[in-house]
Amino acid sequence: MTDHDHDHDHDHERTVAPMVDEITDFEVLEIALRELCIEKGIFTAEQHRRFTEFAEQIGPTPAARLVARAWLDPAFEKLALSEPMAASKEVGVDWMEPTGFGTPSDFTAFEILADTPDVHHVIVCALCSCYPRPILGNSPEWYRTPNYRRRLVRWPRQVLAEFGLYLPDEIAIRVQDSNQKHRFMVMPMRPAGTEGWTEDQLAEIITRDCLIGVALPKPGVTTNVITETRPAIHPVT
């Protein structure tokens, strides 16, 4: 064996093998369904790419603005709690056609859960990971984990404490379980120290985690707020 042959074999041994064993059943199903739809002409590979890039850029900014506006305008707050679909349109999100492609999974009953001094809401999907994507964007990874989904419904105070949220015993915690056709969003209470703030200032402190219910808005805390997002309308062609 020559030195060249030896080097070639050595390099071959160091080649990383494809991690096919790490592909989940859901990923296999998605690949098969996507390729079948492309083959049948339902959509093209290019259309799928544009839709994927568009969907990944939807964030929670419209929802934060909805809550901020409700804090400032009692009439809008009443609309948000009684007709959340209509209130969503006021901040640029149309649940009837959230992406321009009419994805059936996003046509749902939507409800906004308002916190009170006595009740704190938090959302979960114990069965899978249903989430109000048109107005909150894609769900965080931890929201989809069995660890969060199974434990929150059994030990909500312990799970919230792991997020750094410690609520007094006198405040009841209401866990709202989403399902295939129902989506929920939390409207937290306006924190002290924000008197005289504008809608823009208030929206900055309403983070994604606040809208899920695992955090409370605080002046100066803007973690997880996505400032540059696309509204849930037709993607640019």
Automatic annotation (TrEMBL):
Cited Pfam families:
NHase_alpha
Q: Which UniProt keywords apply?
A: Hydrolase, Iron, Metal-binding
Highest taxon listed in the record's lineage: Bacteria
| Ligand binding (Fe(3+)) | C125, C128, S129, C130
**Gene Ontology MF: a single term:** transition metal ion binding
Family label: Belongs to the nitrile hydratase subunit alpha family.
Q: What is this protein called?
A: Thiocyanate hydrolase subunit gamma
